[in-house]
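Table S2 (continued). Query chain:
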Amino acid sequence: MHRSLWLATLLVCASCVSAQTASTPAYTGTPGNYIAHDFHFGSGESLPELKLHYLTLGTPHRDASGRVDNAVLLLHGTGGSAHSLFAPQFSTVLFGPGQPLDITHYFLIFPDDIGQGEASKPSDGLCMKFPHYDYDDMVRSQHQMLLDGLHIDHVRLILGTSMGCMQSFVWGETYPGFADALMPLACLPVPIAGRNRMMRYMAIENIERDPVWKNGDYTTEPIEGLRTANEMLLIMGSAPLVMQKQEPTRATAEAYVDQVLARTVAATDANNLIYYVDASRNYDPSQDLDRITVPVMWINSADDFINPPELGIAEKMVHTMPHAQFVLIPISDQTRGHGTHTQAAVWQNYLVQLLNESAPKH
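Corresponding output:
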């Protein structure tokens, strides 16, 4: 499995890691790179060269004026990469002939976000001297990559999972009308606070309190801090109903934890984790959601431990966007907690509805 996919798998779908490990992606994608020169971050820091990596599926179609009119931007979750959305339970349900994002009709673009995948990141050498990026920086870099690298100034759809879900709200209000429609999956458009921030803070603190970390200048990974941080992420992405069924005894539950942590710790860089978990620190699209006037199909699941429905936030915030619909998927044998965002069979009909409702009028 691709190295950067492991944490995404843990946070995306903690209850089905072992199944995904044995899976072979049905699609691979065409890789590409874009270098953003002298990129300035919101923190005031900069990089002379910011490398952005992406994968694509399908072929761009140009209208009579030469403008690409079939691009779709798909955004991965925390710690993931472009490969994260090539998982079979996502790609084989959406990308094939006659499916909602059929690659014979759409040009699909999967970026690696700053700090993750094959994009520039702390582990490239700067360690904790790497610029402290946030979601605004990620979205701005994606926008620059599309315009200057791929020569695309409009997309048919932006679909994002988890962190990508939050970025889709940022996209919608920062670049109104750039997309015909938005499909945020598994997030809330309010600051990361309460239990969500507590879990992120604890994950970061456990690494930084490990003596081996050495303020980010470690020569070997701070394993104890990493293990505890990954334990927090395992719980964040957990789905109790599925876990109870798949690990019905103490022995199987403990063996599952040991298996998952052994793999995730081995595949995670401590500084990278600190950066991408903390990138949400100043996220807050709540004040400008009314700038999002395109159709929005926003979906959460009732067993999402990160975005629990009892907060009642989504039902309130959806009304601040004039053409938004919020759907709460009930708990079932098909949902996977926070990771339901990658279980495309559960919500694909809503994607079809969104594409139909947002189809350009000719």
